[in-house]
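## Example record

The block below lists the input lines for one assembly entry, exactly as stored, with component labels intact.
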Amino acid sequence: MRQSNEDRQRFEELKGIQAIDGLSETELAELNQLARQLPDADPDDFERVAAAVEQIWSGEPTKLMPDPVRNKLEEQAANFVLANVASEKVHTPQVPEVSNRNSNAIPWLAAAASLMLAFFAWYEPQSPTAKTAAEMRNELLTSASDIIRVDWTPTNASAVETTPGKSANGDVVWSPTLQKGFMRFRSLAVNDPTKEQYQLWIFDKNQSEATPIDGGVFDITESDVVVPIDAKLRVNDAYLFAVTIEKPGGVVVSSRERLPLLATVN
Amino acid sequence: MEDVLLPRVARGEETAVRECLSRYGDLIWSLARRLLPTSADAEDAVQDIFVEIWKNAERFNEQVASEKTFVVMLARRRLIDRRRKLGRSPQVQRIDETTLVTPSQGRADVLELADEAEQANRCLDTLQKEQRRALELAVYHGLSHSQISDCENAPLGTVKAWVRRGMIQLRDCMNLSHTSKGGSK
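Predicted structure tokens for the full assembly:
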């Protein structure tokens, strides 16, 4: 009985790690072994709980899958169906057109074809006519009817983050309907991405001030740049945009110690 | 309530495979962008996730969880696995007390939620403050147990216990175990 209790405790500990950190091969084997030993064991229940909670905290999808990604997945879906159909035929003896001599090769051929199609679909070179961020910003300005446009205001901290001898400036444009926007910077200091990166924060009236929306991590590579906004959550009613300097990769919650630019929505 | 697609996907219906992509594409993309560091990582991940969903469609059991929960579960599993392999995860500096506010608090009531999610909303209110915060940092912000330990200045064992007990309490409150519903996997 005591052993059984210890096993159940370990089983639940492993499920907790699986749902949050993921398991190593060894830990996964241990989890599966315990699942076989314990009566009424459900190895997936914690992951299911996390998935249900995820839906509450994430709300509606905040990002639309980009068309190029969607197109590639649609091709992949077609390949998946094709491979499955081929495989089904092999396993269905009454289908006359599949000869025994070739049947073993069909799944391999289907898989190979699928892999080749997936490879070419996935590694399709970018179109030479891909638009620049500046062009997309101009398009947004002319197409969206609800554009918010505010200028960056340098803070005291910006003195050290600005190109020497110049004051950082620029603006933010944002369309609440399209959930799309761009930042334009002039004379903001070029950063070394291996040491630090810039990060945008969007303050929304529907969010606590302590938890602004992460607007994405970006680099300044030259004196005059346009950067797309990459909001991680839906922005309903923005009242302030802020740029901070963070560790490479950005942070979940900023200490806001280095905050060179702000843009306030009137 | 939307029709379930996965049984049709499991039967190899092409339209269902495409509908699955259409229905869950934005959801999975949003999840991947939030939990992975770059857009390129997210692109790779969503490809893996959809293959995983299509391949595992026959494992879906409507009696145990909603289709959306099943899809999110598979997606999270792949994303966590990928993040583990990348050796990267969101970095954290200081988190103050006010970050206890749930990210989408105040919006959940206007959303069309899956049954489990509606129930989860009610059950979350029954958790202890520490349990809820640990789960929020882990599930929503994607922090590991050790990162939560650093953030909260709490021993790792304590953080694991908060998460584990929170999970058990939610599972029991939401009736989300297949053993409690007689479903099989």
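Chain B touches chain A through 85 residues (CB under 8 Å). The mean pLDDT of chain B is 80.
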